[in-house]
TrEMBL record:
Heme binds at residue 436. SUPFAM superfamilies: Cytochrome P450. It comes from Pleurotus ostreatus. Its cofactor is heme. Keywords: Heme, Iron, Metal-binding, Monooxygenase, Oxidoreductase, Signal. It comes from the Eukaryota. This is Cytochrome P450. Belongs to the cytochrome P450 family. GO terms for molecular function: heme binding; iron ion binding; monooxygenase activity; oxidoreductase activity, acting on paired donors, with incorporation or reduction of molecular oxygen. Pfam families: p450. Pathway: Secondary metabolite biosynthesis. Residues 1-17 form the signal peptide.
Length: 507
């Protein structure tokens, strides 16, 4: 008996020594709020304005990286440009995957949207197909004529019914990307634009960590009639709306192509590169790539375009300065065109400041670490969900003094755009291998629309029936993907010359 006891004690000592030495070798986790048994930091996870709360926690911890745990799930938040660059760029081999939550991936069916897919061959195939269309040289040759046409249509619509400016922005963005992708002509209240709104209304419900089924995946097996299983119905509705968005416009394009039309489109150009059998995996990837592009372009453009109207009404000095630059260069003879931006640095700075002030996705899309990593002296465990706090990066007072102030001049250095600050703002499009491949298309679209609107319209605060100005108190959706709630402002032609340019936009 004694030898067995000795062997058992020796075994325990060996295990204890191994665990102790391993703990000594492993650097500590990043700092964070106090964790409680089992639930971890569940009580510290905010219900809204996550980016602001995480930025505050980082400052309280005197660290640009924080760690939280929820029911054993490791969460890391990167709150500085340096942290995001180190982890997502320099360690991209371990930080380029996505955490695919049970709700959004399995129940809602969004696992087929390639921007949400884990890093792997299917994702690489989708991105390669996307990049063939949207790399700058190819994309601008095919896309800019469509963007120009849609921008001119937006200018005309603003003249005819300025009160509906938010709907006009929505229509212009939707019409442009649908024409590029599918070669379809978009009509008033087009169902193809409505379909993307229907699909996107579900996405914030399914974002990782917002549903109990993500924390306890076994819940996906409970019947629909069980109390608390309402997520099943939500998921089925979301899957239906997403499948409509994937299939319907693609089918319309294939019908046009069969009739000898719709040839100026992403779908047609991709099909022309080689045979893609109907119903096969390549066709599915093509359809999903088009849908991902539609969703991404729609979401990245609406917030800054809508914010333009409010910021110009609230900051008339900025509006006047931009318009003086436009008038001096264009001499009231034409509307802005592609290629003018290099001659209009202040106007371009207005765009950069809109992107900086209120990023559309303040925490980006989450990443997942596929193996252990390190940042500074901290251990980043494999399997961690990683958020990069774009809002905190773009409101860093050391880089952007008075970050809550709308000040485009901060981007100018000796009369030209400060490329270093511009690169910081590009953080809104992501980092590393998952940086948004459609960023060039988005920047082109935003700049042309912004410059065109400023060249012919003055935006100011609306007035009520008694002639009193109505203050603009901006409110946003409480989602991780933000939108501006409706507000009122006045949009009027700047002059008779401006009206003539507007009338020249009639189709």
């Amino acid at each position: 008996m004694l030898p067995e006891i000795i062997l058992f004690v020796a075994f325990l000592f060996t295990v204890w020594s191994y665990v102790t030495k391993k703990a000594q070798r492993t650097p500590p986790l990043p700092p964070g709020p106090r964790k409680y048994p089992i639930i971890g930091n569940l009580l510290k996870v905010p219900s809204d304005n996550h980016w602001v709360v995480y930025d505050r926690l980082a400052k309280e911890c005197n660290s640009d990286i924080i760690h939280l745990s929820v029911f054993g799930n490791s969460v890391i938040v990167l709150n500085s440009f340096a942290a995001a660059t180190e982890v997502l760029d320099r360690q991209s081999s371990i930080s380029s995957s996505r955490p695919l939550g049970t709700m959004i991936g399995e129940i809602m069916g969004w696992k087929y949207i390639f921007s949400l897919q884990p890093y792997g061959q299917r994702w690489r195939d989708s991105r390669r197909m996307f990049w063939q269309e949207f790399h700058p040289e190819h994309g601008r040759a095919h896309h800019r004529p469509i963007q120009l046409r849609c921008s001119r249509d937006l200018i005309r619509r603003l003249y005819e019914s300025p009160i509906d400016f938010q709907n006009h922005v929505r229509h212009a963005i939707g019409a442009g990307i649908i024409s590029v992708l599918y070669g379809l002509d978009i009509q008033e209240e087009d169902p193809n634009i409505t379909m993307v709104d229907d699909a996107l209304k579900h996405i914030n419900v399914g974002l990782i960590g917002t549903c109990m089924v993500d924390l306890f995946p076994f819940l996906r097996h409970i019947p629909r009639w069980v109390p608390g299983a309402g997520f099943r119905a939500i998921g089925e509705n979301a899957a239906r709306d997403l499948n409509l968005l994937i299939d319907v416009p693609y089918s319309q394009t294939r019908k046009l192509l069969a009739e000898g039309r719709g040839e100026s489109s992403f779908i047609h150009r991709t099909l022309s590169r080689g045979p893609i059998p109907d119903g096969g995996m390549e066709e599915r990837i093509l359809k999903e790539a088009a849908t991902t592009t539609y969703i991404g372009a729609n979401e990245t453009s609406k917030l800054p375009m809508t914010l333009l109207f409010a910021m110009m009404a609230q900051n008339p000095d900025v509006q006047t300065k931009a318009q003086q630059e436009l008038d001096q260069y264009l001499d009231h003879r034409r509307l802005p065109e592609f290629g003018d931006e290099i001659h209009l640095p202040y106007t371009y700075a207005v765009l950069l400041e809109l992107l900086r002030l209120e990023p559309t996705a303040p925490l980006g899309l989450p990443r997942s670490l596929v193996s252990d990593g390190e940042y500074k002296s901290y251990h980043l465990p494999s399997g961690s969900i990683v958020f990069y706090n774009i809002w905190a990066i773009l409101h860093d007072e050391t880089t952007f003094p008075e970050p809550e102030k709308f000040s485009p001049s901060r981007f100018l250095k000796d009369g030209v755009i400060d490329t270093q600050l511009k690169d910081r703002v590009m953080a809104t499009f992501g980092f590393g291998r998952r940086v948004c491949p459609g960023r060039y298309f988005a920047l082109d679209n935003l700049w042309l629309n912004l410059a065109s609107i400023l060249s012919v319209y003055t935006m100011s605060k609306a007035v009520d029936e008694s002639g009193q100005q109505i203050e603009i108190d901006l409110e946003y959706t409480a989602d991780l993907n933000r939108h501006v709630l409706p507000f009122r402002c006045s949009i009027t032609p700047r002059s008779e010359k401006a009206e003539n340019l507007i009338h020249g936009c009639r189709l």
